[in-house]
Amino acid sequence: MTTIPEYANLTALPDIWAIAAKKFPDILALHDPHSKPEVKLTFAQLYQQIKQFASGLQALGVTPDDKISLIADNSPRWFIADQGSMLAGAANAVRSAQADKNELAYILRDSDSSTLIVENQKTLDKLRSFCDEIPLQLIILLSDETPKTDDSIKTLNYSQLMEQGANNTLQPITKEDDDLATLIYTSGTTGQPKGAMLSHGNLLHQVKNLDAIIQPKAGDIVLSILPSWHSYERSAEYFLLSQGCTLTYTNIRNFKTDLKKFKPHHMVGVPRLWDSLYEGIQKQLRDQSPTQQKIVQFFFNLSQTFILSRRIANNMSLEHFDASGTERFIARLKASLLAPLHSLGDKLVYNKIREGLGGNFETLVSGGGSLAKHLDDFYEIINVPVLVGYGLTETSPVTNARTHSHNLRGSSGQPIPKTEIKIVDLDTGEPLSQGKKGVVLIRGPQVMQGYYKKPEATAKAINSEGWFNSGDLGWITPMNDLVITGRAKDTIVLSNGENIEPQPIEDACVRSAYIDQMMLVGQDQKALGALIVPNLDALQTWGKNQQLNLTFPPEDASREAIVNSDLYGKPVQDLFKQELNREVKNRPGYRADDQIKAFELILEPFSVENGMMTQTLKIKRPVVTERYQGMIDGMFES
């Protein structure tokens, strides 16, 4: 049951804001400290602006069931446009203004949009050549720039639209649970994007049930960094704002400063974000004196033993479900003996790390990919609660999540209310028993209506009984937790027929201080290989400790310059061999086929900007493979 009973019977998502405005009128809802001027909106002001935006759209001819393309990035105006377009009765198709123009043109065409809302004139200029091919009737800039007068399509800026809204009476539109609210196009690590049709009921399921995971208080600070248009951040924002939280916008450049400045209570993010925090902390620790480093390492090693013993004692260790009563008793005894030293470590070391993160964190929620074991362990040691969730764009997105009371590390947690999970055989589709690995199927009120105008793709994804095929591989624990082991289509098949799931091995290897990013390769080869983006700062520190004067080329150096640099000298190459060998072998479930026999170092990181990562920071494996195909082929020539 949601903590706000008034939401229980809602059938339209935007109806939340009238209730929130009454319950939390003077609490700050949206805060953008980095915009010029700074933006602060209370819940009462936010609702008023959403209504005004909706009224302006209606005055300009937007009718119920129209489609609106919203091409913009995180800002209070994005949220107002999103909820204003729904309140006007329309459904929106959303995407980042930074996305490739051909991808945006595809979304404009495919979504049948009659209105286009864009971040600014620059974004419109990028799309302008496509606009005449699409029956657009209206364009809105979310900026206050003066629209170009020679535009053949009626174009207004944000202030002009809001002025229209102020002079028009909003016409209430009734929406039901199964009415379309939004089209979110799958980011597509492969193939053409598909528009996942999410209804008001799909999104309201998240608002009404995510309190099973997290119970925020009115006025709690939430730091927002993920793309607002993405289903994960979007549903989180709807839920957290519905509970009276203050959403504060940040970005990669200001993230670490904003942690200390705004001291957030909650945050949702992706593994790469938590990894960047971890790396920053590790760098600070490496800069300490050798004596301080030894003290810190002593406490971390001790606490590592402590948390494992505590997990085993409480039957919360994935690798020890079959532990005997005697083993659990010994683990409980060991945890009791180590607890005072762990507490001392908390006082001397971990508390200072938490203060560097703002000091107020009650919950970090991680999703959008697997969280590496060393990160899960690290945040448990320093007592920053990390809850891992699972879901997809097509499931609005949350289906499973760990909770404070049941935080089984390594898992994605139990299903949230009204959600069913089933594991089936990859080849036959037959249900598998508990503990067996197969494809994850999902059924519940959050499962999409289908892919827009793609009945065949919809039928392939959702069967006649309503089960959605996630394409993920996983298994169910005795306590009904879901453990994700990889993507069915990411599987690398070696020439000996062995199937390798790359993600767990990659997660293990990036634990090395010297590996910043990594992607496994080796399809149809005798053994695995890897493309590695090294951590040059950590390598420099290592070189100094080894009394080596290492020099590395810049990121844009030629391949020849990289190969002829110290990166390919014997000391560094031997270091990477040792690191890969150790981390792979230390991974639970290690097999001989998991060994990485070859690797190449690349200096350009995988990123959204260079097209090698999705907006949620997942590596686009086919894109990376195509880009480095020659290098990959060279790994296996011998």
UniProtKB/TrEMBL annotation:
One Pfam family from the record: AMP-binding
Entry-linked SUPFAM superfamilies: Acetyl-CoA synthetase-like
PROSITE patterns: AMP_BINDING (PS00455)
GO molecular-function term, one example from the UniProt record: long-chain fatty acid [acyl-carrier-protein] ligase activity
GO biological process: fatty acid elongation
InterPro entries per record: AMP-binding_CS, AMP-dep_synth/lig_dom, ANL_N_sf, Chloroplast_AMP-bd_Enzymes
Protein's name in the database: Probable long-chain-fatty-acid CoA ligase
Organism: Crocosphaera subtropica (strain ATCC 51142 / BH68) (Cyanothece sp. (strain ATCC 51142))
